Amino acid sequence: MARYLNAATLLELARDAQTRATAPCSCTKTPLDGWQSQPLSLDETQFEEIGTLLPEDDPEPTFSEYLPGKTSYWAADAPIAPRYFPYNRCAVWQCSLCGRLYLRYVEGGGYFVDRRIRAVKAELIEDVPLPG
Fold first, then answer.
1. Is residue 42 scored above 80 in pLDDT?
2. φ, ψ for residue 108 (rounded to 5)?
3. In this structure, how many other beta carbons lie within 10 angstroms of the beta carbon of residue 88?
4. Which of 4, 57, 68, 118 is most buried (most C-beta within 10 Å)?
5. What is the pTM of this model?
């Protein structure tokens, strides 16, 4: 199983990746600032899974979303809140060519499966506790 990354560790990794990843890369051909269905053009062989936001001790993480103000799930400026859906079901992947970080998970519905991906931006990571 992949190594669990809490919000503080994710933030540290994201800051480091942003510092190093300044040049264009084939992984940035399609803007992935907000959640997107994984583009078919994305070369999966250039990505390495480096961790997960799914805690080992939480077999059924919440489906509650953290969307303050008027933001939406699809928005490029929506916060990345690791304790909330869909982040609490994400794997953290790194481009082996440029070092950029991405979140990936599989959205499953009644009749479909959609692999989704979003670029990690350090300034959007928020460690928001769950209510209760």
1. yes
2. -115, 130
3. 20
4. 118
5. 0.93
pLDDT at 105 over 90: yes
DSSP state of 64: -
- Inter-residue contact 84 to 128 (CB < 8 Å): yes
105: in domain: yes
The token duo for 14 is 């994201």
Q: Coil, strand, or helix at residue 89?
A: helix
**Residue 56, domain extent:** 7-124
- Indicate the length of the chain as a whole number: 132
C-alpha to C-alpha distance for 128 and 61, rounded to whole angstroms: 14
Q: How far does Cα 107 stand from its chain's mean position?
A: 13
pLDDT of residue 117: 97
Give domain status of residue 26, yes or no. Answer: yes
Q: Is the pLDDT of residue 120 over 90?
A: yes
Confidence of residue 112 (pLDDT cuts 50, 70, 90): confident
Q: Please check whether residue 34 lies inside any domain of the structure.
A: yes
Indicate the number of domains in the chain.
1
Q: Has residue 87 been placed in a domain?
A: yes
